[in-house]
Amino acid sequence: MRQFLFRLILVLLVVLVIFGIYRLLTIRPLDNVAFFRDRPGLAAVDSVSPAGARPYTLAAFQAARQAGVNGLYLPVYLTRDGVLVVADSAVSQQTLAELEGGVALQEVLTAFPELRAIVALRQPTLQGVAALLQAIDGADARTRVLAAVDHPLLANTLREQAPDLGTAATSAEAAAFLAMERFGLAPFYRPAAPALLLPGDEIDKALVAAARGRGMHLVALAGQQGSAELQALIDAGVDGLVATDAALLAGLSWPR
Questions:
Q1: Phi, psi for 109 (deg, rounded to 5)
Q2: pLDDT tens-place string over residues 219-250
Q3: Could you tell me which residues come within 8 angstroms of residue 191 by beta carbon, excluding any fewer than 6 positions away?
Q4: d(CA 134, CA 130)
Q5: What domain range includes position 244?
Q6: Is residue 1 part of a domain?
Q7: CA dist., res. 247 & res. 177, Å (int)
Q8: Gap between the Cα atoms of 71 and 237, Å rounded
């Protein structure tokens, strides 16, 4: 019996070694998508609201641009009439015309062609994915949009329909990478998306290096962190930041 168990364990070890070698030889890092290629660090602002103005309006986005940011973080929801609008809460019971001051995603992308945008599809559905692609293509914005769809099946559907569009890893995909990195197994991770969106307080140089080793770009969701914390994230090597203070983002120093 002991001899049988010993042989079984030995066979399992051999299989694991062969599988590990196979993974190392066959897994290839993802290509650098146009959203990141040959572009300076992404300094994107979320919830920007100039004095007296509502957030997620054209006036707010204009203020962000004037403050010097080069990107926008846009949470989007689908209206009852099938239009994606930039908003901070669900609008499924309203049409675009019924929304007071509502702005469609395609309108934002068209109005600010020089800015990149991280577009987060809230409450993802198949109809929402179709509307997302329609809005992006309507503004001819595939090279400057990073789409975040936190639903495994729908994220894969989007990637199949638009392989040239940059996408962010889902929360499950990001969790799998973090777990493998924690145990030193990042080289065996098969990347599903070219970008990871992670809270700034979870990021350090080792994590950035592990992500880059798999061909993934790391964008820090920095929220209300101060200038020192934001600069520390840049120094750690992140490819982009999303924060709520446009003035702090504009004053950061990115490597050339």
A1: -65, -35
A2: 999 988 899 999 999 999 999 999 998 888 88
A3: 29, 30, 169, 177, 214, 215, 216
A4: 6
A5: 34-249
A6: no
A7: 33
A8: 18
